[in-house]
Amino acid sequence: MKERVVVFGGSGFLGSHVADELAKRDYQVIIYDLREYPRLKKNQVMVTGDINDDVKLKEALKDADIIYNFSAVADIEEAAVNPVETVKVNILGNTKIMNAAKDCKIKRYIFASSIYVYGKSGSFYRASKFASELLIESFHEVYNLNYTILRYGSLYGKYADEHNWIYKILKDALTLGKIVRYGDGEEIREYVHVEDAARYSVDILSEEYKNQCVVLTGHHPIKIKDLLLMIKEILGNKVEIEYLPTRQTYHYEITPYSFTPKTARKLTSNYYIDLGQGILDCLDYIHKNLKTDKIEGAVE
Question: Under CATH, what is the fold of the domain 4-156+192-218+261-271?
């Protein structure tokens, strides 16, 4: 059995996939989350708790070697309307985990950041991730807490929910026969399948990624309108696509990048899930979890 790893936010979309990938590679995994994880594996243990509970936090970190922190207000719109909660979870919570980590002599602290730190879009979400990165670097300088910062791009895949845009539009396509997009579809994204992101997130435990920032995005940029056409064709052209004027948005259009001296390495692999195949898998997952034959207007 390998090292003992605590995954904060391990019941969530990305965190659960990383926790499963760690278990697959024989790590001892402690999942720490407010919500119970329904798919526990044999070498996974569940701890239900709040990251702001100092006592429970230190108990969970006893004899641990590595920490992953996915606990966050991760929805950009939610962060925009609730800055206090965003700061409490994303900044204060992150700081409390690191403070406990340095007391418990943790070997490596892996933090889930975002490519939004590169730009000026993203509102309080971007600001909270940027501030957290600065705090991580300071903890390394002052307490020698080793880290790896993972800047994730746009994720999609199994076990997502309504907060995930691809999940939402695929569900709308299956249940309503219609996808609504605010914007003209010229926006560009590099979607990365969550299973690929999870593999990369464990690969970075090698020494070469210690005290580094790593970008984890997809391999091929795609315009939103091309993605929507792909989905329409996959569903036999039975889906209506409607573009509406852009609402107030905190998302970037073409690129999250603006000039900044902070650099990171992009981790890529020749082995990855093709976007089209990934969309098919998502549709299959959503279809199985919806009784679409009983929903009026559902795509068969």
Answer: Rossmann fold (3.40.50)
